[in-house]
Design goal:
It contains seven helices and nine strands. By secondary structure, it is of the alpha/beta class. Strands 5-8-7-6-9 form a five-stranded mixed barrel. It starts with 14 loop residues before the first strand and ends with a helix.
Length: about 240
């Protein structure tokens, strides 16, 4: 048990999927895991552990933003010895060739700042995904008939962004989409020698201003869970 996770020793699996929304964690666990059981409800940030094809899996909400995911990822790694952490969430597309519902695999994660910035001082550390997870997720998506976009993403500190000039430069430099957590997750995985990947579904588009309804998001989220599980446990 930690400050923010009430799970007992042995309750957390080595593989953890991390949606931002705790109710999405509940839905994913009840939909895809065998015998899921609630292992955390501290502050309403739900976490469940069950099995997928016989493999133990935890699905733990992370909250919104890098400060929040830093808390949960730190405790999952340092106190529960989590080895593989896969963020499954939504993002806003930043390229014209990307459509709503498309899947993005974040190879790198650009940011203005992260909770780890103070450690690096003058160094601009370049956080990136674990290649084995990235490759396995790409293969799993293709096996489902989905062609994922693979490349750089942007982890923003703010949801209500008022920097169109910054967004324009990120788009100009090929950033695929914007979300709020991956950069810090990648940094923590690098620090502690763990595997991490951000697997995202496009829920809105910064250029066209198109957006999915909540019911349409659920379908895309299901694809992400299936791809993430297949990537974590490739056959």
């Amino acid at each position: 048990m930690t400050i923010h996770i009430g799970a007992k020793s042995g309750d957390i699996a080595p593989t953890v999927l991390m949606p931002g929304d705790p109710y999405r964690a509940k839905w994913a666990a009840e939909t895809y895991l065998d015998t899921p059981r609630l292992v955390n409800d501290v502050r309403g940030m739900l976490g469940y552990t069950g099995t997928w094809h016989g493999n133990p899996v935890t699905i733990q909400g992370s909250g919104m933003g890098m400060a929040s995911i830093s808390i949960y990822a730190n405790e999952l790694i340092k106190d529960y010895n989590a080895q593989t952490l896969i963020r499954i969430g939504s993002c806003g597309a930043m390229q014209e060739n990307i459509a709503l519902r498309d899947v993005i695999l974040g190879m790198t994660a650009t940011s203005l700042s992260t909770p780890s910035r103070g450690i690096f001082k003058e160094i601009n550390f370049a956080p990136c995904a674990d290649y084995s997870l990235l490759a396995a997720a790409h293969d799993a998506a293709r096996a489902k008939g989905i062609t994922p976009h693979v490349g750089g993403i942007y982890s923003s500190d703010v949801f209500y962004d008022e920097r169109p000039d910054l967004n324009a430069q990120l788009t100009r430099h090929g950033i695929l989409g914007v979300e709020m957590e991956a950069a810090e997750l990648y940094i923590l995985a690098a620090r502690y020698g763990r595997r991490a990947l951000a697997l995202l579904t496009v829920s809105d588009h910064l250029l066209t201003h198109a957006t999915l309804t909540s019911s349409e998001r659920e379908t895309g989220f299901g694809n992400m869970v299936e791809i993430a599980l297949a990537a974590a446990f490739p056959s």
